[in-house]
Amino acid sequence: MKRKYIGIERKEARWGFAFTVPAILFFSVFSFYPILNALYTSMFDKRVLSLLPPDFMGLGNYTYIFTSPDFWNSIRATFVFTLGTFIPIVIFSLMVATFMVNLKSKQARGFFQIAFYTPAVISSVVAAAIWLLIFDPRGLGNQWVNALLNTPGVDQKWLADKTMVQVSTMIVYFWKYIGYFVILFITGLSAIPPAIYEAATIDGSSKWQAFWRITLPLLKPTVVLVSIMAMLQCLKTFSTQYLFVQGGAPRAPINVITLNIYTTGIRNQRIGRASAMSIVLFLIMLIFTWLQFRFSKSEEVEY
Amino acid sequence: MEISIKRIPWASIFIWTALILVFVFTVMPLAFMLTSSFMTSRQIVRMPFSWIPETFHYDNYIKALQGNDGSWIFPRNVFNSLFVSITVAITTILIASITGYGIAKFNFRGRNLIFMMIMATMMIPFEAIMIPLYMVATGLRMQDTYAGLIVPFLVSAFGVFQMRQYLTTFPSEYLDASRVDGLGEFGIFWRIVFPNCAPVIATLGILSFRGQWDNLLWPLLVTQSEKMKTIPLYISKFAEEKLTDEGAMMAVAVIASLPMFIMFGALSKYFIGGSAVYESRKG
Predict the structure, then answer these.
(1) Which of B232, B261, B260, B253 has the alpha carbon at shortest distance from B35?
(2) Among A25, A303, B22, B50, which lies 20 to 30 A Cα-Cα from A196?
């Protein structure tokens, strides 16, 4: 009896292993090996075309990038973009989501949901291409802003000025992802039981008070998680900046880390240096991911 | 006595105005893409902009397909994008479901370790490993091939995670009953488990398809010849050629967006539900 029992367990283990091995092999080759390889390569002066074996240089690539104004500029560009994008996205999408759950008509809510989400459906390259034309000196961007500010004929230099081009990339991202974050917040808001609001109304609270005293505190975990998610997204941004540079915008103000890795590693063939940048990017994102896990564990709310 | 005066519903007027403004902001650029794809370049940058094309300028679509150099490479690029995205969606669904099933329903030593390892890969951003991956692809001679475009994305850790979460609640009695009935382990997976994963399959399929349809960075590294390029690269080339023809560029954009719009129209609940699922993963 006992033997047979072990036999079944063994058999089960064998099948379980067989089902998971392909994925493990895949992740070993295409995730673990590359990140370890990046760590290793970042210690060498490796170039693609060189026939000589690469020189070991310890932390040389790191001291190089951390003393290079170009890399600091990339860190600056990445963080400016991240902060300038995620803060407005989180605030606006929370506002829009609150408005939407207060809509009485279910159809209207569904309609707005789909409409707001549509930009998230198209690819980021298409989004950047559309906005490249809108930001043309003679394009819609200038016409809209001049109509709003009543300043006819002014060119805002969307793609030419070094501050404006950063704002422009943020607008593209904001436009593309606002609907996505609205939906995340609607999910969070719908989880708050209506009974709490009813109780508050009976106690004489206004909608405004209810928002600040009930909704926001209960929604805090969602806000934190959504913020970190948005930040992680923004730190990896590439397509918009790449397309804007291809379209003739100045590189330096929007030379985010990913774009710098690409230029250094692929165009300039400095693999070692690009690997060091990759490791830095990885560590930055790791810190945020760690924060995310920490918050998702400690911030559970029970209704 | 109360005098019945209808109070003006300021709150709801405010909400509607705000939502309509957001609506205008999100939809205008898409409308601009569509309408300008039928305009001549001169009309696109005319001030003030008129939203209705003077004449429906279908030429843009021909130019889009033909390319600036007249090579007609775009249809091939569309095919590449479709082929890569569909293949990745299929392999992700298959491998993620079988792996998720193995982790959820089988007891074996190292199971938790394997699961933790797969989860850990979610912390490795693609952007940080693209350079070594490029070296791997070069080493395996996958540059400029479909294999090179597809293989690094065969399965996603997020997919495995979703499938595992979903299948943990799958009743084991069904599996045992099928075993008693003499169905082999692979048969159980394929005939009993897999068909029951439909909701996850839909969201995961859409997510993986979109991921590759949208992918600019990896094809930029791994492809060299025009005939292996995908749609995002074709669009970036259009932008690079100094916006030679704005109308044709928007026609390309419309063609590139069509499959996504069709999918979104038919399966919008999986798109929107998918983002909710994504949050619950984090939460």
Answers:
(1) B253
(2) B22
Per-residue model confidence (pLDDT) at position B282: 32
Domain assignment present for A128: no
Chain A contact set for B204 (CB, 8 A)? none
Coil vs helix vs strand at A139: coil
Q: pLDDT by residue (tens digit) across B224-269? A: 999 999 999 999 888 887 556 888 889 999 999 999 999 998 888 8
> Sign of dihedral through CA atoms A67, A69, A70, A73?
positive
B100: closest CA of chain A, how far (Å)? 8
Cα A113 from Cα A116, distance rounded (Å): 5
**pLDDT tens track for B87-115:** 999 999 999 999 999 999 998 888 899 99
Predicted TM-score (pTM) of the model is 0.89
Domain that holds residue A210: 62-119+179-237+247-298
Domains belonging to chain B, first-starting first, are 10-65 (no CATH), 68-244 (1.10.3720.10)
Q: What is the mean pLDDT of chain A?
A: 88
* Chain A residues lying within 8 Å of B264, measured CB to CB: 117-118, 121
- Work out the average pLDDT over A263-273: 90
Is B149 near chain A, with CB under 8 Å? no
Work out how many CB contacts closer than 8 A connect A with B. 296
Distance from CA of A190 to the nearest CA of B (A): 12
The answer to whether A184 faces chain B, any CB pair under 8 Å, is yes
Provide the ipTM.
0.89
Backbone torsions φ then ψ of B225, nearest 5 degrees: -80, 150
User: How many domains, in total, are found in chain A?
Assistant: 1
